[in-house]
Amino acid sequence: RATSPTLRLDVAPVALGEVVSDAVAAETASGRADVDVVAEDPEDWPTVLGSDTELTRVVRNLLSNALRHTRPGGEVRLTAGVRDGAAWLHVQDGCGGIDGADLERVFDVGYRGTPARTPGPDSGAGLGLAIARALAEAHGGALDVANHGPGCRFTLTLPPAARTAGVSSA
After folding, report:
1. Mind listing the pLDDT tens digit for each residue in 106-157?
2. pTM for this predicted structure
3. N or C, which end of the chain has less CB nearby within 10 Å?
């Protein structure tokens, strides 16, 4: 459905901090208690143009993936801002990084990297990141990943609801 040309989004100004707060509450209630989730100053985050329901799904998919792959005792950190006319959200995990061969394929439908192929309660179907990227693109945004720090950082970019004069660095 996320990649369907018939997908219609009810787009309105959405406070990114509220979307993230809702996703964090939902994922931490049903997720891993041995990983800390930190959202830095969400009340100061930008307002974006988007569908609240679909953006919450994007953030929940990113957060669920980050929690699943971060080692016990690790941290998932969410930050946001505006740069070069676009709003951004970083989801930084503590997974130890993604192998270069897998890094380029994590958004492919059905693709699961070698560690995710082991059957178990934390294995997925390889759809969450593909859905997240498709929904980001349906919003006129993008979703990318790079190895960074103790793991990898997913960067969601979206059109802001209004241009802001301030620029926040990534």
Report:
1. 988 866 665 544 444 455 556 889 999 999 999 999 999 999 999 999 999 9
2. 0.83
3. N
